[in-house]
Specification:
It holds the Pfam family Lactamase_B_3. This protein has seven helices and 17 strands. It has 291 residues and is an alpha/beta fold. The protein has two domains: 170 residues, no CATH class; 95 residues, no CATH class.
Length: 291
């Protein structure tokens, strides 16, 4: 599953706990540019935006000079050109692979009409790449979204983070999982089944203990929470305790709770045995890792 970015800026920050592998073993030269962050992706154009150009230097430099330049600050861009539309960007330790064509030629599926091979990097392969943090696909045509390259890349790195244009979505969705989680939030456990029949959520946040007024359900839960989780094929259920407050007054005196978290777990085990109930602790983050 790919991530698609239409207008929100995408910021690459330095990874302080990793010493990036030098690219000097791969290529004799590097293209580098010293810019102020951030790097932004837009649907109609790809640009490097800066609010102040305090220093800008772009050059093709020798291997020795490039290696020396990579340690001159936290905002160094190491831009390695891989021919065609392909790049490998190293942005302060974050590596972005752009429109890679590294397997076979570029022929748009019609080699009798057009067939192009690289002039300089004829023996450069996917296995020659360092560890990549992100794949950027700027459009869906073969000279950017090269399936001969992307299919084996997805087998090597199925959870590689992907940023792409919407028109590349049908091509990339089957290839990359991205370890992406989806979340559904329903604070009253009241929902329309018809609206959710075709939906999916890995995480469901909802009450599991009912809050009842005389002849009226204020907050649902229990079996309704189980059915909601089942309907959405949830992997994780995070119970809300929105009735567990130090409350007073007439209304508080007539609200009755029904069920417990333990009784909910028993119901859930029967209907959705692989789902997990994760109880949050107030004030503490509850971390749910991607699959």
């Amino acid at each position: 599953m790919a991530v698609y970015c239409n207008s929100a800026p995408f910021s690459c920050k330095a990874s302080r706990n990793r010493d990036p592998t030098p690219l000097s073993a791969l290529l004799p030269t590097r293209l580098f540019s010293l810019l102020q962050p951030p790097i932004s992706f837009h649907p109609d154009r790809l640009k490097l935006s800066t609010c102040r150009w305090d220093k800008v230097a772009s050059a093709v430099v020798s291997e020795e000079s490039a290696v020396g330049s990579s340690s001159s600050g936290t905002d160094v861009f190491n831009l390695t050109y891989l021919e065609g539309n392909s790049w490998l960007w190293d942005i302060s330790g974050v590596r972005v692979l752009v429109d890679p064509i590294l397997v076979g030629n570029l022929d748009f599926g019609i080699p009798w009409l057009y067939d192009a091979a690289k002039k300089f990097l004829k023996n450069f392969e996917l296995t020659d790449l360092p560890q990549v943090d992100c794949l950027l696909i700027t459009q869906s045509l073969d000279d950017h979204c090269h399936l001969k390259t992307l299919k084996p890349l997805s087998k090597m790195s199925p959870n590689l983070r992907v940023i792409a244009t919407p028109n590349a979505k049908p091509l990339l969705d089957p290839l990359f999982r991205n370890g992406q989680l989806t979340l559904y939030y329903e604070p009253y456990c009241v929902y329309n089944k018809d609206f959710l029949e075709k939906e999916h959520a890995d995480i469901v946040i909802t009450p599991v203990i009912k809050q009842l007024l005389p002849n009226f359900t204020l907050v649902s839960g229990q079996e309704d929470a189980v059915q909601l989780a089942k309907l959405l094929h949830a992997k994780f259920i995070v119970p809300m305790k929105n009735g567990d407050l130090d409350s007073k007054g007439f209304l508080a005196s007539i609200v009755q709770g029904e069920g417990t978290i333990e009784s909910f777990k028993e119901l859930l085990l029967k209907e959705l045995p692989d789902a997990k109930t994760l109880e949050p602790t107030p004030g503490e983050p509850l971390q749910i890792p991607p699959p």
